[in-house]
Every structure is written in structure tokens, then in C-alpha cells.
Design a protein that fits this description.
Elements lengths: L1 H26 L1 H11 L1
């Protein structure tokens, strides 16, 4: 049970974290402003 539960919870968490992370970086205005400031 432990292995099955961990595997089932880890896979969706990783995909969700990657999806939300990429979306938040590109969509959020704070992310774009930070990238611009870092670029300057």
C-alpha cells in the first residue's frame, strides 16, 4: 500500500508542479517583471 500510494501521489504532483510552475512563470505579471529586471 505504501509504495502504491507514494507512486500514485508522486506522479501527479510532479506533473502538476511542472505545469503550474511553467504556467505561473509565463502567465503571471510578477514573473515577467522579474525576468525583465533580471535581464536588465
Amino acid at each position: 500500500y505504501n509504495v502504491a500510494v507514494k507512486c500514485a501521489t508522486i506522479t501527479p504532483d510532479e506533473t502538476r508542479v511542472k505545469e503550474f510552475g511553467l504556467k505561473s512563470m509565463w502567465r503571471s505579471p510578477n514573473g515577467t517583471i522579474r525576468n525583465i529586471l533580471n535581464g536588465l
